[in-house]
Amino acid sequence: MNAKKTTFGADPQRMADMLATGTDADSGDLTPDETREELLGRRLAGSLPPTPKQANDLAVFVGEFQELLPLQGRALGEVILDEETELDVLVEIKEYGKTLSTAIDSEADREVGLTIYYAAIAGGILFHDQRITSYSFAVLANALEAFVEKRWMNPKLARHFAKARKACRKKMK
Prior knowledge:
Elements: H1 3-6, H2 12-20, H3 36-45, H4 52-56, H5 58-65, H6 76-81, H7 87-102, H8 107-128, H9 137-148, H10 155-172
Helix pairs in contact: 2-9, 3-8, 7-8, 8-10, 9-10
């Protein structure tokens, strides 16, 4: 898989720059009542929605989401952090995060999408010893480091990212 294709043309430095966005006190385009932490919390409390393709084709929807039926009623954050979550589900969540990060309503929405994207990748590494991306372990370790350091990060996700970062560093040796 071409790294430029999976990162929408951004090189590793550009990805690092994007991930570093929001680490300062500047609230950017957020209102006082809507912080990145709140946005992330709302997304993680929700469930994984169907993609537009699946919503338009009932046969595809039923076929692809049969595996997700056990997840009904479970929050996305719970599914991401559950070591029993199947790899295929983590791939779906990764794609959902990618979609969120490219449908830029705001910088905060983009960051929340990237958080979900990388949380699913971290789950693949931690729970299945699988890298569900073409990024190298070195690039992933750096990206995960950026999430660990975000002040607005959900504490459980921060630990999830820290564990995955450690696993990536071990794989680099």
